[in-house]
Amino acid sequence: MLVEAERLSRATGLAFEVIACDPALADTAQFCEAYGYALADSANTIVVVGKSEPRVYAVCLVLADSRLDVNGEVRRHLGTRKASFASAEETEELTGMVIGGVTVVGVPAELPVWIDARVMERTSIVLGGGGRDRKLVAPPAWLLGRPQATPGATVEVVEGLAKR
Predict the structure, then answer these.
(1) What end-to-end distance do the CA atoms of the chain give, in Å?
(2) In terms of Cα–Cα distance, which of 24, 29, 26 is closest to 135?
(3) Alpha-carbon gap, residue 79 to 94, rounded angstroms
(4) Which 3 state secondary structure label does DSSP give 142?
(5) Diameter of the chain measured on Cα atoms
(6) Where are the domains of the chain?
(7) Which residues pair with 20 in a beta bridge?
(8) What is the pLDDT of residues 55-101, one digit of tens each?
(9) Phi, psi (deg, nearest 5) at residue 76
(10) Could you give phi then psi for residue 4, rounded to 5 degrees?
(11) Which of 40, 103, 110, 153 is the most core-located residue (most Cβ within 10 A)?
(12) C-alpha atoms less than 13 angstroms from C-alpha of 65 in its C-beta half-sphere
């Protein structure tokens, strides 16, 4: 994952920072409290699943002070009648990452990445680092370079993907 992040930095020309953290404090609220970051400057990476045959998946990035609109905007984007959060097992199987460390960097190219528009308003964001022992801090524009870092990947900024 850090190799993908470094490739992304070269592709975008924007730097990122890696912050080591206690894996027991990797969940966003605990991390922010322990390390002094605001929830409004932190983002959660969430894998969602459209309940259809075959199942369809996407990766969403929303600010930690927001709630992902799974039954509205996410479901519409997936094009399914029902949608939900992917299980921890599905998330790990699809991304190779465990909850608390999931990041949009390095996810398989076949998983579309949808970023809530509010994320792009921040100066920088804290997001998962690929494992529970680290976080990444980067300007949101850095995320838009992901297609160059992961060939074939798609990234879309979505208005209203999350609610406050």
Answers:
(1) 30
(2) 26
(3) 20
(4) helix
(5) 43
(6) 2-163
(7) 134
(8) 999 999 999 999 999 999 999 999 999 999 999 999 999 999 999 99
(9) -60, -45
(10) -60, -40
(11) 103
(12) 12
- pLDDT profile of the chain (164 residues), mean per 10: 76 85 96 96 97 94 97 96 97 95 89 96 95 95 70 86 93
- Quick one: tokens of 160? 């209203």
Rounded Cα distance between 22 and 36, Å, is: 14
Burial of residue 155 (number of CB atoms within 10 Å: 0-12, 13-18, 19+): middle
Q: What pTM was computed for the model?
A: 0.93
Q: Tell me the fold of 2-163.
A: YbaK protein (3.90.960)
Contact call for residues 74 and 44 (beta carbons, < 8 A): no
